[in-house]
Amino acid sequence: MSISAFARRCGLTASALRFYDDYGLLSPADVDATTGYRRYSSAQADRAVAIRRLREVGLPLPDVVKALAADAAESSRLLDEHLSAANDDLRRRRRAATDFTTELYDDVPCPLGSFRGPVLAAAIEQVLTATIHHLAAPALAGVRLERSADALILIATDRYRLASRSLAAGDVEGVPWSGTVDGDQLREAMSELRRASRVEVESTARDVRWRHDGGPTRRCRILDGDFPDYRLMLEALPAPCTRVTVSRHELWRLLEHHAGDRLVLDIGSTGIELSTPEGRVLLPGRMTGDPLRIAFALTTLHPAIIAGIGPDVMIEARGPDRPVTIRSADDGDLTTVAMPVVLDEQELDHA
Question: Where do the coiled-coil regions begin and end (predicted)?
């Protein structure tokens, strides 16, 4: 078929096909000796489409040659390496753009607190699990920071879960401030913060800045859009009817070995009883209120327990179909609000 017909079939342009021919990547099946017209066969369509798709992700031509000649595993490795490098480059460009735009303004930074790097990094990580990317609500991809008189509070929510973590602000005097910080940029800052012995946190109207150990200042932009009124959400919760406190590490261990995607907790006077591959297991604890059978999706409960702090976890339930508060504490506190799942009678009988 003619070069124009082949180009249409494969989603390419005729000029691109000429370029790939000159490079030696895709030669035509036949070239007219008199006119020089290129003609292609249907058998070449798969290779042409593969070239187009590899170029769509920005793979350089030498790597396209390697990917086409390699097996599936090697091709995947080449793509992973390319995308990783592209993501690193995008992060560098985003940081440079953030630094440049913030330097255009004469914003006076407001101190938010001074924190140990590993503690701050862990606190951010603990609430990041509740973020989500949502086109209609960009603020849900961020972490809300609020400076109170004596603490820095970090909040995130995907509207199904809410995580709140407080950190004592130390001796740093600050004024009340709040803003929603880009969650992706926070993730990028994790390794730096975790290695820093001390991190000074400051805010402006456009970004939050992290300074540590004489290193360069890291900036994370403030997201546009309204953050959900989490205080209203918490105040609307009724008082718990059941409260149980157990070992967080033991509950974590049991969740790690749970076979299904849902689990049922039987909360009673001696603690929490749940099913494991070895049978029913009692997790000793202190309970007040009414006995309760409640179910969770493992993907909801597991992150909340992993992200906890300190050796213990407190679960406050309001019934089998109402929001549950999961709390833990050491020198600060972490609160997660999560929804249980409602199981039908047959599922409950087999729990």
Answer: none
